[in-house]
Design brief:
4 copies of one chain form a homotetramer.
Chain A (H helix, E strand, L loop, with lengths): L4 H12 L1 H4 L1 H10 L5 E6 L6 H4 L7 E6 L15 H12 L4 E7 L3 H6 L12 H6 L3 H8 L6 H20 L3 H8 L4 E8 L4 E5 L5 E3 L7
Helix pairs in contact in A: 8-9
Catalytic activity (chains A, B, C, D): hydrogencarbonate + H(+) = CO2 + H2O
Function (chains A, B, C, D): Reversible hydration of carbon dioxide.
Enzyme class (chains A, B, C, D): lyase
Chain lengths: 215, 215, 215, 215
């Protein structure tokens, strides 16, 4: 069981390049603890890493990554809820000031939500169950035969971001701090093809960052 | 609701720096789809981002991040299991060749597992429930009064990595492919203070990468 | 009844500027007749003039402009059909090689189609009747409560362009020449806010011209 | 289906030239909406574009273009009337202050009106039907064997402009606002060969703008 070489090579690049430059920072973050101001919920997709997109340094962002960057609704039922646990930790213990839900183009999880009749990937059908969190919206979008497949995909990617932000507000700790202005919630959508970042405004619409007036 | 400036500044650095260099790569990954060879389960901790530690490019690694980088045991009970969904997708759809469970030093989730009497962070006590996946091991480690607090912390961090790797094997899709040699499972532990990477060998022990004989 | 001064001033600018430069061209086009290669169907909107957007010279494009740049389906019923008449003239008499249906952002006609219960602008309700050409698609788009108003607007603007292109093919003269490869049909969508042009590809999706990979 | 290159080249000229100069104007017109003071009914002819002739900026004129710049009589019969719809929108919604009917020399639609026995361009004979709106006047002009073909052409072009202005007044919304002095109606005729503009006065006669006494 040899550790993958490509990862060891990558680690060497880090050890020779970035690490020496940030040695003091790393030591300080270890001794004093992390105090990231931002929590990001992003997708597992290999093309949508928030640290890359935002050029983040160690200590900057507390990152949860799951399929299709979903926040489930608040459900204190005693079950295992990893995303809820991360949220609770970020809000109550780390006291982050910003939560960003970041979706992206060509998301496989969103595509799965739009294909509910797809054969389960395994008998457990974990993906099918997980993306069913989006079932009502996926059904509404999927019913529109006038839109192209790509248009429905992008539509649901953005609806999902708004939906996750609404689900964030179902968590009492988020709702209270948000109401007091101590916590702000944001949406972003990353175009993996062009590297463009779109951010959400007050109407729930997304605008490209290098050109905020784009439709 | 203005998008956080520090994130927009970071994005500008990406847009001006790394993006132009990798424009062709991004376009190709978008058109052909992602084919990462590696899945990494890492912690949400802002000091332990796998893309940073392994200098990963877009398309290289499919990354799940949850508190304490835990893989729960296979549990096809129809509930929402985000980490299991990501695993199912990586193994069955993306057909990754490697899964790396990467833990790190000073992990807040591991610390929480070692403090079961800690006040819940919120009435939902999601963290408490989540880290109870480690309860048996945490109890055994916590009972050892001869080890220092830091030694118990590091011990459980490493036990947890081995535990997650065992839980990976409870997933039939992982077990089958692992048995055929098409999928290898790896453990790693990152020292956030020094930037050192320790990898797991066949005995379950961790060795530092730049000096494999160090204890 | 004095001719509006702002128009006379504009005409003077033309007479002193562009006209002297294109005097030969104008004379030749008058004597030999127009032979535009392109027909454009655009909206009446004051912010979406095709000659401006494409920097067209006299003789380049035969332009029909109506509310929401709609092509109605082929309907040889002996009624007055101005858009059909223009199409017939362009295809059969001028023998254009390209037909471009150009829509735009924030189209009032599309907004009217999405507000079927709106009070008629006059007892004749000409607009209501005209945009009812889009009723099925408008209803499908309007039913999606998950999309924002702006998202539905843009969705229908693009659906309408595809719909008009399909209606073009219901005209036998278009269908025959298109089938022979002597006439190509194109879609474009102009962002009046940013001046960006999006063109339609074979899947019916729209891509921004300065960045063809944008979603 | 590649978008025509000559149009993309023209768009690049616009994007590099006029657009940067008018970026603020475009943004403002998009955000606040269009408020053109003038509606122009012009011909589809590629040599008679009103924005070119009047050097119009975005937001200045709401433009309808059909064959022979005809306004049909008010006909609230529940049929599809695109020119009437545009008129209704301009007058009732945009509240334009001026309507200009602009004809031009060598108009193919007028020529068609003067050739009623011409073979239909297609079985639908849309042009034949459309220009029959001018049938009475075309018949009277056509009967005059003493005028040359070109004189009859110019005569009908100008008769048609006056006829369209009379048809504008058959629309109650136009008639009411015109009667109150809130809306003025104008005629213009553009000589495509020389670039000269002729405007209509109270007697219905047309005078050249740079030399009002010319016949």
């Amino acid at each position: 069981m040899t550790f993958p070489k490509h990862l060891l090579d990558g680690y060497q690049n880090f050890a020779n390049g970035r690490l020496p430059e940030q040695r003091e920072l790393a030591r300080e973050l270890a001794e004093k603890g992390q105090k990231p101001e931002t929590m990001v919920i992003a997708c597992c997709d290999s093309r949508a890493a928030p640290e890359t997109i935002f050029c983040a340094d160690p200590g900057e962002m507390f990152v949860v990554r799951n399929v299709a960057n979903l926040i489930p609704p608040y459900s204190p039922d005693g079950e295992f809820h990893s995303t809820s646990a991360a949220l609770e930790f970020a809000v109550q213990s780390l006291r982050v000031k910003h939560i960003v839900v970041m979706g992206h183009g060509r998301c496989g999880g969103i595509a799965a939500a739009l294909t509910p009749d797809m054969e389960p990937l395994s008998p457990g059908d974990f993906i099918g169950k997980w993306v069913s969190l989006l079932a009502p919206a996926a059904e509404a979008v999927g019913a529109n035969a006038y839109m192209t497949g790509a248009e429905r995909q992008t539509a649901l990617e953005r609806i999902s971001i708004r939906n996750s932000i609404e689900n964030l507000k179902t968590f009492p700790c988020v709702n209270i701090l948000h109401g007091k202005g101590k916590l702000t919630l944001h949406g972003a959508w990353f175009d993996i093809s062009t590297g463009e970042l779109w951010t959400m405004n007050d109407t729930g619409d997304f605008k490209r960052e290098d050109n905020p007036q784009a439709e």
